From TrEMBL:
Name of protein: Thioredoxin domain-containing protein
Similarity comment text for this entry: Belongs to the thioredoxin family.
Cellular component terms (Gene Ontology): cytoplasm
Superkingdom of source: Eukaryota
Extent of the signal sequence: none
Listed InterPro entries: Galactose-bd-like_sf, PITH_dom, PITH_dom_sf, Thioredoxin, Thioredoxin-like_sf, Thioredoxin_CS, Thioredoxin_domain
Region (Disordered): 166-187
Organism listed in the record: Baudoinia panamericana (strain UAMH 10762)
Sorted UniProt keywords: Disulfide bond
Residue ranges constituting the Thioredoxin domain according to the UniProt record: 1-109
Residues in PITH domain copies: 132-329
Pfam (any one): PITH
Length: 331
């Protein structure tokens, strides 16, 4: 049986990209003669070099998976793309067996050297990293250091609580036993003010490919006198906005993705939920707006202790300009 994975949906492709260090993809069409001619060469490479979690060969039918083809701007068949850590590293247009063979075997050699060294590059770079409430999947890294803290704009924030920059603090939240705050210092979390809604505008220093958002929200135990706070429940996410979205505007504006968090999504030890993103919708993200539409519980305020972004980096952008990519919804 061939080890080649036939992609059935954008979500399926995102899952493969996040679960394998190297992904080789053949974008083809059934009516394409050159695609059929080079198919045996591709299958032979797949049979020889596929290794679970390390090198995965995939095929994408551009007629049935038009959204994926459009995302990666596929205009000719066949087109072969090679991804490392979810990021495109090489593209080969046309049926060129020699170029395909050389490119794939070179990557296989690199993967072999990495295995001999004991760890993938992404794992090796984790030492000394910021605190994370849940693990980062292979092939991705914590890209929170790319947040442009000077451009942050949060609406309905309780100014008596923590500063908006504190949710990007790399230290473990104090409420999880990381030590007490100094006298007179603000809390190291944020809360909404007049009601449970929060609007968080987060620009980045470079364009990113986002895989997920790690959201930490520590709810005080009953009887502590702080029973009015609750965790975020419904999130509406907008990408590549030039400014923050108003609350009235957010109700009418189509979002890039809407997520409803359940109680089971929160890790009991770290109070952190991993918000999985539709990876094909978050390929070139220069800014993100997170609208917390409501909270889970009977409280009146929503609390967030930490926000971490997981994905891969991209090109630095002009910090004087934050351009909208595509339409307002990022579609």
């Amino acid at each position: 049986m061939s080890p080649t994975v036939h992609i059935t949906s954008p979500q399926h492709f995102s899952q493969v990209l996040s679960s394998s260090r190297i992904v080789v993809t053949d974008f083809y069409a059934d009516w394409c003669g050159p695609c059929k001619a080079i198919a045996p060469v591709y299958e032979q490479l797949s049979t020889q070099l596929s290794r679970p979690g390390t090198i995965t060969f995939t095929k994408v039918n551009t007629d049935t998976q038009k959204e994926i083809a459009q995302t990666y701007n596929i205009t000719a068949m066949p087109t072969f793309m090679i991804f490392k850590a979810g990021r495109e590293t090489k593209r080969i247009r046309g049926a060129d067996p020699k170029a395909l063979d050389q490119a794939v075997k070179q990557l296989a050699q690199e993967a072999g050297r990495a295995d001999e060294g004991g760890a993938a590059a992404g794992e090796a770079s984790s030492s000394g990293a910021a605190w994370l409430g849940v693990g980062v999947p292979r092939g991705y890294v914590d890209v929170t250091d790319q947040v442009d803290v000077l451009g942050l704009d949060f609406l309905n924030l309780d100014g008596e609580k923590g500063d908006k920059r504190t949710v990007f603090d790399g230290n473990k939240p104090s409420s999880l036993g990381a030590g007490k705050r100094k006298d007179g210092a603000k809390n190291d979390w944020i809360e909404s003010d007049t009601d449970e809604q929060l609007m968080l505008f987060v620009p980045f220093q470079s364009t990113l490919k986002l895989h997920s958002i790690h959201l930490t929200s520590v709810i005080p135990a009953e009887g502590t006198g702080d029973d009015e706070v609750m965790r975020p429940k419904t999130l509406k996410i907008f990408t590549n906005r030039s400014t923050v979205v108003g609350f009235d505007e957010a109700d009418d504006l189509p979002c890039t993705q809407e997520i409803e968090l359940k109680e089971s999504d929160w890790d009991a030890k770290t109070a952190t939920a991993k918000v999985e993103l539709r990876y094909v919708k978050f390929q070139n993200v220069s800014s993100i707006v997170i609208f917390v539409a409501d909270g889970e519980g009977e409280g009146e305020k929503t609390r967030i202790d930490r926000l971490r972004f997981v994905g891969t980096g991209g090109e630095k952008r002009d910090m004087g300009k934050l351009e909208k990519i595509g339409d307002e919804q990022g579609e």
